[in-house]
Amino acid sequence: MSANPTIEWTDGDLTHSARWRSEAGSPPPRSVVVADDTLTADTAYRLASEGTALLWHGDFQNARQLLQAIARRVDRPPKKKKAAPATPIDAFNQHRQAQSQRARTLNALLIPIEPDYGIALRRAPDMRAACEQAYGPADDQPSVASLRELQGLVGAYEWRKKGVEIPALGERIHPHYGVFSPVRGEYLDLIAEAPLPATTLAFDIGTGTGVIAALLAKRGVERIVATDQDPRALACARDNIDRLGYAKRVSIVEADLFPEGRAPLIVCNPPWLPARPSSPLEHAIYDPESRMLKGFLAGLAAHLTPNGEGWLILSDLAEHIGLREHDTLTNAFSHAGLKVLDKRSIRPRHPKASDADDPLHAVRSREMTSLWRLGVAASDGPAS
User: Fold this and answer.
1) pTM to 2 decimals?
2) 213 with 119, same domain?
């Protein structure tokens, strides 16, 4: 998709166009009809299911209600019950397929946006601040986005203002739009409790919000170099580190994995599932072909000081699903010239772990999150 794609539609005898906005990276819809308050929920659901987008020209609050009505129809149990998936990976693939189809249908309800990010619909709220945080400064072009995306922008805007309480840190982290929020606190508890090999220097690989770098600083590490290659993550990490008063001890560096030099402690919390993300926002969850995981392990020995430790934080959900063999990880350690010094594990506490109605409940109920303390194997250690 081009950097500035456009969406076109016909209203009467006139053809209109505007900039298409999709943070999920979806292409502009090919079929667009103008819709208003006279459109019924059943018709809207049918059109959306068939791939026709609905450009809303009616009351904004009615659009919100219509989206809820479409969602109820999407989530309605099928009349004929489907056979249970044969394997966990079948359940995973079916779940992702269903979620993708659900997103496509719900994203069909579109809202026109003014050049200043205002919305010229009756009873429309002021979303300009939320749009500016996600899209950047207004560029004086009218645009169109899905109502569902706009609701996500507003939700992220409020989360950024409110922040996420991190018990292990004793502070709040404020995630920016498009940066994965550290809502799974169990892995942070592992980092907070593992014995530090040194307090002089640490690398935080793929810092995201900067929460791990902040936690290491709180634990007394004198200097931390935190890396990421996503501009939003870099800005988010700098904001949080400055807010928490650690700017003199934490450096935020743009890098693909490792910064220059070596450190006695290198921490990495890569995406946990080796699968292809369906949108840019899913890169924090899905690591295609385990690229980040493999890159971290392959380069770890060369970036550790003698007797240094690499901390890998990873869930075993991929093994339970069948996306990764159970011995793949330990074989990868050996191949990279690494040895396991210790392994600390904890059960997740997020709501899905105990939700019996979740399609992946059978595998989530067995999930464990682990902190692997890795050292350089004696025979393959780097020269000092």
Assistant:
1) 0.90
2) no
pLDDT value at 383 more than 50 = no
Q: Which residue has the tokens 């019924």?
A: 40
3-state secondary structure of 236: helix
Quote the domain boundaries for residue 316: 163-380
**Does residue 1 sit within a domain?**
no
CB atoms within 10 A of CB 183: 12
Pair (245, 289) in one structural domain = yes
| pLDDT score at 351 | 65
Residues 6+ apart with CB under 8 A from 380: 301, 337
Q: 214: number of CA atoms within 13 Å, CB side?
A: 25
Whole-angstrom distance, CA of residue 5 vs CA of residue 21: 8
d(CA 117, CA 21): 12
Q: What are phi and psi of 248, to 5 degrees?
A: -75, -20
| 380 pLDDT higher than 60 | no
Inter-residue contact 54 to 38 (CB < 8 Å): no
Q: Is the confidence at residue 91, as pLDDT, over 90?
A: no
Looking at the predicted structure, is the pLDDT value of residue 279 above 60?
yes
Which of 115, 134, 158 marks a domain boundary?
158
Share of the chain above pLDDT 70, in %: 95
pLDDT band at 382 (very low <50, low <70, confident <90, very high): very low
Note whether 26 and 70 are same-domain residues: yes
User: Which of 214, 218, 220 has the alpha carbon at shortest distance from 251?
Assistant: 214
